[in-house]
Write a structure and sequence with these properties.
The protein is α/β, with parallel strands linked by helices and about 475 residues long. The protein is built from 14 helices and 16 strands. A five-stranded antiparallel beta sheet has the order 5-6-7-9-8. The protein has a four-stranded parallel beta sheet with strand order 4-3-10-11, with helices on both faces. A three-stranded mixed beta sheet has the order 13-12-14. The chain is elongated.
Length: about 475
Amino acid sequence: MVFKIFNTMSRTKEEFKPLKDKEVTMYICGPTVYDYPHIGNYRAYVFGDLLARYLKYLGYKIKFVQNLTDVDDKTIKNSQKEGVSLKEYTEKYIKAFFEDLKTLNILPADVYPKATEHIPEMVAMVKTLMDKGLAYKSKDGCIYYSISKFKDYGKLAHLNPEQLKEGASGRVLSDEYDKESARDFALWKAWTPEDGDVFWETELGKGRPGWHIECSAMSMKYLGETFDIHGGGVDLIFPHHQNEIAQAEGATGKLFVKYWVHNEWLLVEGQKMSKSLGNFYTLRDILDKGYHPLAIRYLLMSTHYRQQLNFTFKGLEAAKSSLQRIWDFMQKLDEVNGKGDAELVDKAINKAKKDFDDALNDDLEISKALAAVFEFIKEINIAINTLNKDDAAKIKEFMTDLDKVLGFIVVKKEKISEDIQKLVDEREAARKAKDFKKADEIRDKLKDMGIVLEDTPQGVRWKKA
């Protein structure tokens, strides 16, 4: 089995060969914790989760790092606005981020380094860049990277350094620092009164790190000077990831990352997400509308990561229906009582596994992988009444294996309250007594309470509407 992934650096699909056999080092850019992440952010995190899960499915041991940017212009400004310390302000959103990951069934990374806890590593890297003549200190005390000194600048974004727009290489375009070139970007920002009590006294002077240096320093601390995979949204290709390369390779003289992977934008109802358009949603906004979190996960994952995803509520309803089809299938497996058809089951599993693996080995072609899952469900459903408990156990084991990649197939069976169970039992008793009027009344009452009943040969089943 050969796994191929699209490398942004080469603009081609490449066979994945990690630096060490059966071991993968991976870094996906995490959130800047100044607010609740929006659903576009979570597309990137769900993609990172899919990639990590599939690599584990293929038998790789992974070390996965995702940063938490807890100091930048926005975190400082917003914490001051609320009149609280930077740490108190950012901890609120860090906590919310971890809650959201759990809600979306995103497996945790191995390390979540905070920028504020890695200042010494950043200072050391900046000093190395200055010693090598790649960085300089301006009159106001800020330290900048001189991109004209790094011959490969622009290689990730496929840009010619001479044609770069003046001022486009910094995160905040309004910076008025004393730079040699407007294209140069800040490695270290000297303290100003606007920073308040957010600063570090270092050999570089009193100040704080620039945005780009944070990821270079933290990724290399935990994954080494060269590692396998670095990812994030396409908006990070330039300038952020390009600047990371300049910093890391400028400091070490070694290849920084072997495979660069980037997911495309998320649109909402066909438009770019914007608060002014009223289509800006956090995960919490969507959950407040009553949608199941795994339906959100399904929708965010179901379009190939290199295609733009149009997030619509119609699409979310379709995702919910697709999930319900899977969950109903899993429930039916608990009720089989036929003579058995091991040959049919084995043949169906082997075909589905091949189709699923072939799809994901081709640059994570998720839509084809999902099609293989639903084709399998369709085939088994046709023969469901002939299957026995052993067949069902084999199918559930296969589906559980697929769920190690997808993360939305196997769910804990929800419990219903004693009051609702009492109504279910009363309706069943009314049906047996042929009091269909009462049975229908109870069914309607339960439906109003969000419980849908299904009468099957094996008895009544319930599910939440």
